[in-house]
């Protein structure tokens, strides 16, 4: 199994930028697909971005395209989320998630990820 730890959250003004990190341990990192989800108070957890284990394939939710970028450094066992042009609506707890590369179910469903980090709070002020 793999352990995931997020970091980099905080308070930022609207229009600013923030970079989140997710460090993985306890597994072979390039054997895992990685994703970011977020959850605002009173709302369901929603998909943000996806990065395949070793193929360099990425996917984004429509509302994040052009503003957010997911990347990974397999040598450092770390996945990143660069967030630019932040809006108050982006305020949420951001979670890192992982699943085996052999798993072919929907990347958008939280039920299809076996491993989760503890989350990191992102607050965007107006």
Summary keywords:
4-stranded antiparallel β-sheet, 7-stranded mixed β-sheet, single chain, 126 residues, mainly beta
Main beta sheet, described? 7 strands, mixed
Beta-strand proportion? over 45%
Structural class: mainly beta
Secondary-structure element sequence?
A: EEEEEEEEEEE
Using the CA coordinates, give the radius of gyration: 14 Å
Q: How many distinct beta strands?
A: 11
Distance separating the two termini: 40 Å
Q: Layout of SSEs?
A:
Elements: E1 3-7, E2 10-13, E3 18-25, E4 32-39, E5 46-51, E6 58-60, E7 68-73, E8 78-83, E9 92-100, E10 115-116, E11 120-125
Parallel strand pairs: 2-11
Antiparallel strand pairs: 1-3, 3-8, 4-5, 4-9, 5-6, 7-8, 9-10, 9-11
What does this entry look like structurally?
The structure is a single chain. This protein is 0% helix and 50% strand. It has no helices and 11 strands. Strands 2, 4, 5, 6, 9, 10 and 11 form a 7-stranded mixed sheet that branches. Strands 1-3-8-7 form a 4-stranded antiparallel sheet, with no helix packed on it. It is globular.
TL;DR of this structure?
The chain is mainly beta. The chain is 0% helix and 50% strand.
